[in-house]
Structures are given as C-alpha cells and as structure tokens.
Amino acid sequence: MPSLSLRRPAALLLGALLVVTALAGGVTPRAEAVQLRDVMAVGNGQGGTVSFIDTATYENIGSMNLVPDLQERLDAMNPVERIGYEVVNNIQGYTKLVDDIAVSPDGRTIYVSRGALSDAVAFDIASREMLWRRKTEGFKADHAALSPDGTKFVVSATTASRSEVIDTATGELVTTFATGTYPHANDYSPDGSVLYNSSIGITSLPKVLNGLKGSKAVTAVDPDTFEHVRTYEFEYGIRPAAFTRDNRTMYAQLSYLNGFVEYDLAAGRIKRTVEMPLSDEAAAMSPDDYPQNSAHHGMAMNAGESKLCVAATISDYVSVVSRPGLTTDGTVHYGSGALPYWTQTGPNGHDCYVSLSEKNQVSVIDYRTAKEVARIDVGHYPQRERAAKLTPEAVGSLDPSNG
Questions:
Q1: What is the DSSP letter of 380?
Q2: I need a labelling partner for 137 at 20 to 30 A (CA). Which of 32, 40, 183, 285 fits?
Q3: In this predicted model, what pLDDT tens digit does every residue of 165-181 receive, in sequence order?
Q4: E strands within 292-370?
C-alpha cells in the first residue's frame, strides 16, 4: 500500500487535472454550498425590530430595524389614513409596528407585515436595502405566512376582511381571497396542500355583543389557485391554531376560552373542549379586559405531533399537553404580568419558543420535560416567532444589541 506521503501528491495532481478538464469542456466547478444558520426570528411588535436567536446556543445573535422609514410613512399618510392609524392604535392599546415576519428559504430576505403602518415590505438582511413595499388594503396588516416554496407572502388585511397574496420577488399583488371578519392567522397545512385563514371578529365590541362581531371562521383555500375550498364557522373568534399532518385535526384557541378545542376538520365539528386553570388574577378579570378578547394566545405542536405547547396569556403560564389524551405534562409559570403571547416550535422539533411580551423576553420550553431550558432577552414587546435560516452575511450584519 502506498504511503500517505505518496498518495497526497497524486491526489492533488488528480484534482488539478479534473479542474482543468472541466474548464476545457466549458463546465464550471460546483460552487461551495452556503452554510445557513438555524435561528428563530422574533418580531418585536412595539420596538419595530426583529431579534434572531441561535437555536443551538439560545443566544440572541442580533437584531435589525424593520421600520427605518417610520417617519416617512407617517408623513406620507393622508388624513383618512392617519385617522385609521390612530384608531387602530387606540383599539390595540399600543402601536404595533411589526406584526408578522418570515425569512426566505435562502436566508437572505426578510418579509414583514407592519401592523399599524398597514403594509408589507421586504428587506435584504445583509445590506438593509428595502426591496419593495406594498400598502395593504384597509388600516391594519396582520398575521402573515410564507408559502413553502418562498414565492408568496400571504398577509391578512384586517379591516378589509380579506387576505392578500403578494409575489415575494416583486412585491406585486397576485390575488386576494375573502375571509371572515377581521382575518387573523394565515397557516399552511404541514403538507402545504391547504391554506387556512382564521378570523376573530370585531375585537373592540364587548362579549355581550358577540353576535355583532361578524363572521368568526376558518377559511380553507387551495394554495395554488387561492380558490375557496371550505369554510368552518365558529361562535367565537379563532386565535392561534395547530394542524396535524393528515389534515384531519385542528387544535385552536378561541376568544374568551381559557383553554382550547380539538376540531375535526373532516366532520366540521368540535370534538373536545379542554378547560385549563385560571390564575387568581385572571379569574377576577372581566372577559372584556382580555387582551384583544384572547384568554389564551399561543398554540404549537412538536414535530412528532405528540405534544402541544399552550400559552395561557392572562394567567401567565405555558403548559405542555400530551396527545391523544390531552393531559397536561407540566406547566411553567412566569409570574404576574409576563403576558405569554405566542408559541412556536423550533427547528429541532422539541423546543417550544414562548414570547413573554411584557418582559421583552423569549422563554424556551423542552416538550420532552415540560421544563424551561432558556430565557433570552429580545426587543420591545416580542410576539410572533418564526423558524428561519440565515446566511453568514446576514448574520454578520446584525446589530449585536438585544434589539
């Protein structure tokens, strides 16, 4: 057998010959693949920023400003738009500058629905260049979803009762589809075969006038044609939801419900309602004091579909619940006023990221133990979290402050 010292020059010579041969034949050697970094992107609603958490180390690796043009946008509003802006802020109780976010599959671009600014924008992360901006219909841009192939950004135009489908390459409107009143979440089914929109009704009306809040519905559309497939009507608004891979079951939180429902999508009916504990402070609250009618606001499922991560917003805790029995494995309590307001499963499939909006922090819960494994400082009023990947250039451009 040849010695290592003899094999190495031979290998180098062979490699050089292969490169020369490829170039002579007009074939360019394959470029080295870009190594993307797994992160959780956290939209800081009031701060107008996004924070990025490394999912391996739980480190906040930096942030970027998503409203660099804020004053320009305010100055450009006509009187009707400015009144709408102020009304939305008054109803919300604060100014939500960032509502939802998504990062392109190649890790280079971030798409944002900018709440009270009622628009959707795209930024090149590394350069901070705004690639496009689209004004959404009405006075509020809400939850959004990026299509699995990254070509469409779907944004709820809240006061227009429709979702807008935007081409991510150009920012042009592809189409719209009708929803219930005050469309909220847009969710692609795990297999990408259905796009669901959930509506919450007019949240500024009191519970006693629930019948006047409008249509509270889950609207299912074809994700290729955006044609209507089916509508599921509910008595109360649909808050965050999670869907199983077989497209048969939805777990959803409803307005005013301290718990969640298990919903049969084939039969179109609630199978089970799970009531969860109330804190003493929450028990003393009027339903009309629940933030935007939501007692619970945060529902996620682990990769194995065996566990749910459920945020009890007004009771300041998160529970891990096992399927199919829907029994509670464990609960993490955060103390009064934390406002856990969103949950999202991380890329490893067994971490649940929880936005603690009033603490400007994100909590990480291990589905397997129902224990908190990390607490991370982020920007002002975190809410929506989305799993993403970033290029090295994007990571290197981030502001190292908490954002």
A1: S
A2: 40
A3: 999 999 999 999 999 99
A4: 299-301, 307-312, 317-322, 327-333, 340-345, 351-356, 361-366
The strands making up 37-44's β-sheet, listed across from edge to edge, are 60-65, 49-54, 37-44, 382-390
Q: In what order do the strands lie in the sheet with 100-103?
A: 100-103, 109-113, 119-124, 130-135
Taking the C-alpha atoms of residue 53 and residue 63, their distance in angstroms, rounded to an integer, is: 9
Do residues 385 and 51 touch, judged by C-beta distance below 8 A?
no
- How far is 53 from 389, CA to CA, in rounded Å? 11
Q: What confidence tens digit (pLDDT) does each residue in 16-35 have?
A: 333 333 333 444 444 457 79
- pLDDT for 402 equals 77
Express each pLDDT in 277-328 by its tens digit: 999 999 999 999 999 999 999 999 999 999 999 999 999 999 999 999 999 9
Low-confidence stretches of the chain (pLDDT beneath 50):
1-31
Phi first, then psi: what are they for 189, rounded to 5°? Answer: -60, 155
Res 33: pLDDT: 72
- In DSSP terms, which residues pair with 195 in a beta bridge? 188, 221
Radius of gyration of the chain (CA): 23
Angle at 143 between CA 308 and CA 108, to 5 degrees: 95
Distance CA 43, CA 380 (A): 9
Peptide bond into 324 cis (omega under 30): yes
Give the other-Cβ count within 10 Å of 278's Cβ.
16
d(CA 365, CA 351): 6
- For 197-207, letters b (16+ CB in 10 Å) and e give bbbbbbbeeee
Nearest to 120 by CA among 104, 140, 105, 106: 140
Helix, strand, or coil (residue 113): strand
Please, what is the end-to-end C-alpha distance for the chain in angstroms? 59
Buried b (16+ CB within 10 A) or exposed e, 47-74: bbbbbbbbbeebebbbbbbbbebeeebe
Name which of 340, 341, 321 is nearest 331 in CA terms: 321
